[in-house]
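Fig. S4 source data, part A: sequence.
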Amino acid sequence: MNILHEIETRRARRGLSEEPIDERLAAELAYAATLAPSCFNNQPWRIVMVSNEPGSAQAEGIRAALTPGNAWAQRAAWFFVLCTAAHLDCRMDEGRDYAYFDLGQAAMAIELQAQHEGLIAHPMAGFSPSKVRAALSIPKEIVPLVVLAVGKPGPTDALSEQQKASENSERIRKPLGEVVFSGSYGNPFQG
């Protein structure tokens, strides 16, 4: 089985439908996260799943925490708030706190499963951590690192002109030799 299709077609799209996603499917995305690798199997991720239902105080708290550039996420069916803390995972020499790396692996597992299911899972850094922490009762020692807006693909009418332009633009990646090195740092890989 080749998963390059999901990896190549995954995009952080913003055009979301307001159509709900059932809890079973949302739970599958969370389950995918729990299968991610982690240092010594510490599994440092803490995920707060919030259905974006009308009248939900938690969902309103997340919506209020989003920066203006992420207003498009108001349409998400679910918010997955991915949290961790350095003490939950391996703390190696030279500042190598693995909790954040391992949380990233869990996030990618959600994103790939969402892509496989025909959904969008867009990671956002543009939010107020203190507001999210308050809305979801996240302890002070736990870091709400990223919010994933999860939903079905939908219209782009809620997007800014710049966001609309990027929605279906060509996917640009740096040349392989600029980010992958052979043998020593700075020696471009030529593969």
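Fig. S4 source data, part B ends here. The chain has a mean pLDDT of 95.
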